[in-house]
Amino acid sequence: MADRDGYLAEPYQTAAQQREASLLGMWLFLATEIMMFGALFLVIYYYRLQHPAAVSEAVHHLHSILAGFNSALLLSGSLCMSLMVRASRLGNDRRVQQFLLLSAFFGLAFLAVKFFEYGWEYHEGLLPGMGRESPLKDPAARLFMNIYFFATALHAVHVTLAVVIVLGMVGRIHFAHMKLPERAITLEMVGLYWHMVDVIWIFLYPSLYLVGRAA
Questions:
Q1: How far apart, in whole angstroms, are the C-alpha atoms of residue 71 and residue 201?
Q2: I need a labelling partner for 10 at 20 to 30 A (CA). Which of 47, 56, 90, 128 fits?
Q3: What string of DSSP letters covers 128-164?
Q4: Residue 198 burial (CB < 10 Å; 0-12/13-18/19+)?
Q5: Cis before 181? omega within 30
Q6: What is the DSSP secondary structure assignment for residue 209, as one 8-state letter?
Q7: Which pLDDT tens digit goes with each residue over 150-197?
Q8: Of 157, 85, 173, 60, whose CA–CA distance to 114 is shortest?
């Protein structure tokens, strides 16, 4: 406990108190992120209710199999992140770095697949105001593609931030700027952020790609 107390910041008196405060702050931050995406989900489903036929036409052109593969990549990254948190509590620096790098790899792979998908959609004329003439005849279907692009691009920004944070943690551990297990709480916060980004995609995937999909 003495070593852990050496990492206490003002005004905390115990490591447990500091950990609880850190968790509370992180959950409040995540709540603001969830509220932002929650409003986006409301827009998506309200639009679906107002224009079911147009949304069905647009969804039929989306690449659901590619998005499903991306879901598997993010879930794999979350598994590595959970294993990383466990290793950090045990003070296993080497395993922590390995799992962080694996998570970053899956995050980068997700982004690579997503940008490939954007390229595909660009050549098909599906992205708003880009590429060839849109194959979507209904203006409401084209507007749904605007919503799709905004939602997935916003999520991709969050994935990018998560990868940058993870690589930053790897650097800090590698250069001995973060001592484990005393600073395991920092990595727990990183894990929570990663899981939040993952969960948002798990809801985005069916909301954009599957619900109302034409047979």
A1: 7
A2: 90
A3: TT-SS--S--SHHHHHHHHHHHHHHHHHHHHHHHHHH
A4: buried
A5: yes
A6: I
A7: 999 999 999 999 999 999 999 999 998 888 888 888 899 999 999 999
A8: 157
